[in-house]
Amino acid sequence: MTLRDDIRPKLHSADQVEWVISDGLVPYPRALDSMDEVVMAISRGAAPERVWLLEHPPLYTAGTSATDADLVAPERFPVFKAGRGGQYTYHGPGQRVAYVMLDLKRRGGDVRAFVAGLEQWIIDTLDHFNVKGERREDRVGVWVRQGNREDKIAAIGIRVRHWVSFHGISINVDPDLSHFEGIVPCGIREHGVTSLVDLGLPVTMADLDVALKAAFERNFGPAG
């Protein structure tokens, strides 16, 4: 399911969003501290909005709805309380994480529309590679069909402070999918996970970043 241009959420801002890409693996605590600083600066009008693209070392994060039963292998990787919405998720090499720090007051003040915009951003990005990403009303994230299966290819988890968003999305490019076995991803047991490379597409992280930026600008406005 995609949204026609005439019914897309009105999430554009006139100002350019700062677009930052980090090389290497960024430790999760460092990312949390950096997001806290940027969110406070944006809320004071002292910094531009920012999208931060990065990869993390292998780890699990627990959202505010996480339950102990969904942490299958607690000793496998470090586990961090994320403060975002949602349940358990995995981050690691080969997965593009995009932390999205946007001033929602300037973009309509509608958190539900913002989440729909993030979903559409992912769907438009996947469409660049001829992958049909789909929403599910009863499941968070973006899904792809593989025969009789439906697998999750992208996750969404956000938090809002002083009307500025942080945390964001993750898209599986070529992570080690076995690493997801240490959790029940997002509390969903009936479905699996996949990646662009798992779908047979030789996509690099750089390829994805180009598609992410084009799709972001379509949905949220200029970035650079």
Overview of the molecule:
With 224 residues, the protein is of the alpha/beta class. Helix content is 22%, strand content 30%. The protein has 3 helices and 11 strands; from the N terminus they run βαβββββαβββββα. The protein has helices at 28-43, 111-127, 205-220, and strands at 18-25, 50-55, 59-62, 79-81, 88-91, 95-101, 134-136, 139-146, 149-161, 164-172, 192-193. Strands 1, 2, 6, 7, 8, 9, 10 and 11 form an 8-stranded mixed beta sheet that branches. The protein has a 3-stranded mixed beta sheet with strand order 4-3-5, with no helix packed on it. It is globular. The chain starts with 17 loop residues before the first strand and ends with a helix.
- Overall helicity: 10-25%
Number of separate helices:
3
The N- to C-terminal Cα distance equals 28 Å
Strand content: 25-35%
Structural class: alpha/beta
> What is the number of E strands?
11
Average pLDDT figure: 91
Q: Major beta sheet, specifics? A: 8 strands, mixed
Indicate the overall shape.
globular
Radius of gyration from the alpha-carbon trace, in angstroms: 16 Å
Give the SSE string. EHEEEEEHEEEEEH
Q: pLDDT under 50 segments (min length 5)?
A: 1-8
